[in-house]
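User: Can you model how NAP sits in this protein?
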Amino acid sequence: MKRVRIGLLGCGTVGGGLVELVRRNRGVVADRTGVELEVRRVLVRDPAKPRPVDRALVTTDPAAVLEDPEIDIVVELIGGIEPARTFVTRAIEGRKNVVTANKALLAASGGDLFRRAAERRVRIGFEASVCGGIPILRAIAAGLVGNRISALVGIVNGTCNLILTKMSEEKCSFAAALAEAQRLGFAEADPSLDVDGRDAAQKLQILAELAFGAKLDHAEFLVEGIRQVEAEDIRAAAELGYVIKHLAIGRDLGGELELRVHPALLPVVHPLAHVRHEFNSVLLRGDAVDEMIFTGKGAGSLPTASAVLSDIIEISRNGHGHEPSWHLPEAVDKPLAADLESKYYLRFPIRDVPGVIGLIATALGNHGVSISHASATLVEGRPDCGNVKILAHRCLESALRRAIGEISRLPVLAGPAVLLRIFEEGL
Ligand SMILES: NC(=O)c1ccc[n+]([C@@H]2O[C@H](COP(=O)([O-])OP(=O)(O)OC[C@H]3O[C@@H](n4cnc5c(N)ncnc54)[C@H](OP(=O)(O)O)[C@@H]3O)[C@@H](O)[C@H]2O)c1
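Assistant: Here's the modeled complex, given as structure tokens:
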């Protein structure tokens, strides 16, 4: 039996889950893997907080973990960039293997940390950084290593998915659904990282770096959150046979990559349309396996701890001195596509005057955008105000935006246009 001593940095939601999971499943893990796990030291900020760990193991001194020669693996579950980056760097420099769930750290400094780890011949496990309990990174990097992956699309932010599910099924506003998600503990007091799409963009960066073998920067992706999705659009989408989901999409177009995060209309029959509440799902296409879908809990104490524990075991069995079986790329930049081609849902708030659909259709036609559906509805209790809803055939987004610019100058427009992309293909 191999004994592996864990130094834990952070003992909050995921750290506490890991302590609980090690306690609960230590025996079964040892039987299966020959690795006996021991949590040896736990770094926290506030030593007085109650935690599921022996108080004697708790410390506020980082050196007690990072410089303990008995510790084999440092598990970083603090979150954010600093001091997590400093602690992880110190662990690597001290030739300790590292496991982290920190997508923000990896998106910002993954390349540098993996270079240092390779120099010191130590490993970084990061399965838990994307989609919590779903073993998607290991699937891409190991299980599907014999494939060229051409595309992936995922629901990778559980908070957005829960809010959109509630808006769709309980017919409530974004604000009401967000408040409910916060009450249930699925959204932070400051939800901007989630609802503005940046969390999903960081995860897409890590997924796409592994899938497409390119060093990427999520700051260059097209990123939109879900604040602008209104109950009116969810209702209209449902009437047209769609559901609105927040998607992370990556495609290898040959010479360039398309990377984007935004809400989109999905046909109700699409497999991702059935992923509800806080669940995550990633659909990808490999040239050998064709389409594959992975679904499960993308966050939470025990699901995320499950991914952390799998990294600890993998590193324990193939640890020091071995080449890492997979890691994030340091270089190989691929250009991102400058324009996007898609089908679109458009909504134009209007003052109800005769011929308004014709005016909008003409402006779209002026820019080569053709229409597959057009309808007008009145706003309840406001007989002079309405909405024109359009489905546009596949077109370049740059052309569509020029058309919207022209339409916005029409005197009949009563508010800003809403543009949502339609995701039709399996992938
Ligand atoms: N929560 C999830 O469902 C989930 C899912 C996937 C990935 N992740 C990732 O997992 C990581 C941890 O998330 P979490 O939700 O477990 O966070 P959390 O509940 O806020 O826990 C953070 C822990 O780090 C400790 N800490 C914070 N700053 C510190 C400092 N300067 N020095 C020492 N300790 C410090 C805190 O100590 P105190 O307890 O004393 O405050 C706390 O124990 C993040 O990178 C997150 O993105 C989380």
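A couple of observations from the model: The first helix runs from residue 13 to 33. The mean pLDDT is 94.
User: Helpful, thanks.
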